[in-house]
Every structure is written in structure tokens, then in C-alpha cells.
Amino acid sequence: MAHGAAAANDAPERTREVVLQAALEAFFEQGFHGTSMRNIAARAGTAISHAYYYFPSKADLLRALIFQVTEDLLVSLTSARASAGSDPAAQLAAMVRAH
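-> C-alpha cells emitted (99 positions)
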């Protein structure tokens, strides 16, 4: 039973992630102004009300995407730097390759 409850608890986060991914693809293909929340919800395979539940506006959705991309980049660069040892030149080279 706990497994089912855990899966149910993951569903909202999964829906949020699917909406984010759909928005990323739509913004890439159609631009911010050419994309509607309705289009994003359709791409995500969810109701528009779900998209608005997680992101009250398209601008909020864009902010969440910028935050996510920035956070992912920071994690990637930090990992690359840590794996390059203590030489600053090697650290910089590793971060450039990671980016």
C-alpha cells in the first residue's frame, strides 16, 4: 500500500515536470509570445486547469524554466569543476566542456 501512496504523491510533481517540458519545447519552437497556455497543456496531455494550477501565468512558467535550466547548469558546472582536481586551468577547461 505504501508503494501506491508514494506513487500517488509523485503524480503531482510528474504533472508539473511534464508541463515544464512541454513549455520548453513550445517556447523553443514557437517563441514565448507564439505559445499559449492552452498549447502547452495540450502538448503535456493535461487539462489547461492543471497547467494553471502549477503555473498561474505563462510568465510564471517561463520563470520556473529559467530557474530549472540555471540550476541544472550550476549542478553540471560544479560537478565538472570538482572532477577536474585542484588545477584552476583544468577546472576551467572541464567547466567549459560541461557547458
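Residues 1-8 have pLDDT under 50 and may be disordered.
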